From TrEMBL:
PANTHER family named among the record's database cross-references: BLR3430 PROTEIN
Coiled coil: none
Protein name (record): Putative nucleic-acid-binding protein containing a Zn-ribbon
Every ChsH2 C-terminal OB-fold domain range: 58-118
Source species of the chain: Terricaulis silvestris
InterPro entries, per database record: ChsH2_C, NA-bd_OB-fold, Thioester_dehydratase-like
Pfam families noted in UniProt: OB_ChsH2_C
Domain of life assignment: Bacteria
Amino acid sequence: MAQPETGPIAAKPHIKFDPDGKPFIEAHRCRACGAVTADARLACPACASRDGFDAFRVKQTGKLIAYSIVKRSYPGIATPFVSAIAAFDGGLALKANLVGVGFEPEAIAPNIEVRLTFNEALGRTDAEGRAYVGYQFEPQKS
Ligand SMILES: [Zn+2]
């Protein structure tokens, strides 16, 4: 669905909103080889096919693949934070911050199950005060 004219704004092009205004990630699966990308493309980055892609809604459950604990960054960016890559059930890997964990390696178990959650992207708004929506990962509660 297209970006609604009122309400929150997607901070990234692959964040979409369903008819109820709930955000989700839309990914694209290659019709030739099944490779998954976040953004629509003319040709598949895996097999170079131009047969097209099928869009799908990414599941919000997945596994942590890798992370880095960031202890210094640009001015205005609060540290520490955990920059992570997670692979989501049914396809697509994304990079985002992992929240709800400590900032030492011992606090983050390898291959933990994570959930994709949406947030107001650092409290940023457009000129009309509409909030941007971003996403993050959280450990799944068992
Ligand atoms: Zn392909």
